[in-house]
Specification:
The chain is α+β, with helices and mostly antiparallel strands. It has 16 helices and 18 strands. It has two domains: 229 residues; 230 residues, no CATH class.
Length: 566
Amino acid sequence: MKKLREIEKTSRLMRFDFSSPKPYKTCVLIIVFSIFFGLIIFQGKSMLMIIGYSILIFILPAIFSGIVSKPLSESLGGVFYLRRSMLLSFLCLLIVGFISVIGFLFNRLSISVVFGYSSIIWLRHLALVGTSNPNHIKSFPGSVLQTVLGFAFSLFIFPSKPFLWIAFTIIFFFSAATVVEIAKTPVKKSFGENALVLLKQALGHLTNGSLELESFFEKNGEEKNIDVGVISFKKNERIKASVVVPGIHPGPFGSLGGSDLPEKISRNFDYPVFVFHSASTHDENPVNSDEVAKIADAVKSCVDDAEYVSGGSRIVKKASKTAVFTQFFGNTSLIVHSPLFPTDDVDPETGKTAVLEADNAFFVDAHNNLEKGADSVVFGSSMSKEIIQLSKNAVSTAKENRIDNIRVGVSSKRIESDDVGKQGVQVIVVEANSQKTAYILWDGNNMLPDTKKKIEKDLEDIVDELIICTTDNHAVNLTMDGFNPVGSSVKNTGIISKEVVQQALNNLEDVKVGVYRKKIRMMVSGKGSTKKLTDTVNSTMSILKYAMPASLGGSVLACTFILYLF
């Protein structure tokens, strides 16, 4: 097994992206904090003077820079949003305000204002080159704007030395530029790409749905043969539902590549389509949405080309350190691995070997039991061997439980929750010789252990066997820590599952089964590409952990030295 702690650490970079407050709310905060700082540093003045000074020193530079930074940055080829601009100005105001309070306490108010406004170019420049325009020169006007406004408005109150303003600002600017260049090095070395351009594209996707970042995956992907397995259920001449097991991974995040895979496939059909998670990892992420369309086309072909027959088998469960379920549909078995302990992805090699041992089968990773830091299953590990052996045993036993007819019922429900994708929860109930088995498919990225237990408890008397699965949809990963399994937000999962299962039970009908598999060529992330990207990003963060404090510390020392000299 392989620890996913490094990949998990990288996914948590999503916490740096969040929905900024509406501009008017930020303006209110700017005014409130400005008056607060004014009450402290202008003690002894009349309230009218305190308000007037606060407006000049704090409010006007913050609000003007927040409003003007957007058109200024965009006129120079950048992309900047008013929400982010106002929030950045507010954060810089807090820095200036706290430094001013410290200066007041040490009777150095005037110089502290100079230092505070000069220092904020460090933060503003990092933010602008990272989110607006990676060009230092074109980002500089927006970076220095609040500093210039602070200098201009403070002249009405404090005598200032322009030399100190200029010297301090230059020091902090070049300090920020140095940090940026250091941060760009690992990505440039590994992929030949500008890390800031990639960051801008990622933020563009998160902000307005831009798919520019897919071009990076396309450049670094590789073409592979991908298996698409389909089990279709037909009532008379009507397709009642289809189960799809594609040999790709539904990532990386948002709606990029294979993310939101169930919705991207299902929207092409006028009947229910259940997109299960195969044995796959981030190395099998489709590089763009067009590649996903190939899967939908393959599914249509499989449904049309399949030979529809009656029969299947009762479901068989084999368990030891983990659990495997197997059920025949026609002459093909569906193998579902359902871990008994927190586990992440099962790798493709394990799934392929289990299928080979079982002869004619599709392998599904239920992906239903996750905690932070959980292991993935890699080929050759003890868990991988266990899954392969259990699959072989389960298929052998299922062959002895073949029957001539099965009944199938389906149902679904959309869920409004940030840990559940657009397909919500879908259920297939299969009745084989009076044995009723419910396959519950939640459209999310794995499931909390307690949530799984709750669903199992609420449905223990409803069906004979219960298989809880998730689609591993990475569209739900846009959270503060990148960890958002089913159960993180959605409530009443047991009640919802029970309701949908009951509807599927009421929908049971005799069906014929059509099974077909198709091999297609697709561009995917490629072997080792995700690990390479993960290692590169984590290397960058490790460097910045030391470079940023060193940069700020060096700037402060340099400014102190200049102040001592002059």
